[in-house]
């Protein structure tokens, strides 16, 4: 399954290398571990992810018109939390405190309220920005 995770963070300055490190640290606890020498990670959510630059994300379906307030100073799709609407919510949300939330999986009955729930999670996270990350599980 391919999906997008909105990784939320707090920052006063936008620096792509800092964003890359934030995403790496936040995503790591949710990695599928397949190493025979390590225990299975019961909290796994992804087997790989990519923090793609804007051009590639647009090729995967993100449109500038749907994200009018994205920050031009980043190569990634970074969006101010205060300007997010339910339309900008994704399948998964990863908060600054390290909590993972996601909507229902494709073979489950859809939650018609997920986008509003996700927006509430984002608003209550007290994050300043979110960056969109392409994931696979």
Rg is 15 Å
For the biggest sheet, the summary is:
6 strands, mixed
pLDDT < 50 runs, ≥5 residues: none
User: In percent terms, what proportion of residues is strand?
Assistant: 15-25%
Number of strands: 6
Description:
- With 137 residues, the chain is of the alpha+beta class.
- The chain contains three helices and six strands.
- Strands 1, 2, 3, 4, 5 and 6 form a six-stranded mixed β-sheet that branches.
- A hairpin with a 5-residue loop joins strand 4 and strand 5.
- The protein is globular.
Task: Supply the key terms.
single chain; 137 residues; alpha+beta; six-stranded mixed β-sheet; 3 helices; 21% helix; globular
Layout: helices, strands, pairs:
Blueprint: E1 2-9, H1 16-27, E2 48-50, H2 54-59, E3 78-80, E4 92-94, E5 100-102, H3 114-124, E6 129-136
Parallel strand pairs: 1-4
Antiparallel strand pairs: 1-6, 2-6, 3-6, 4-5
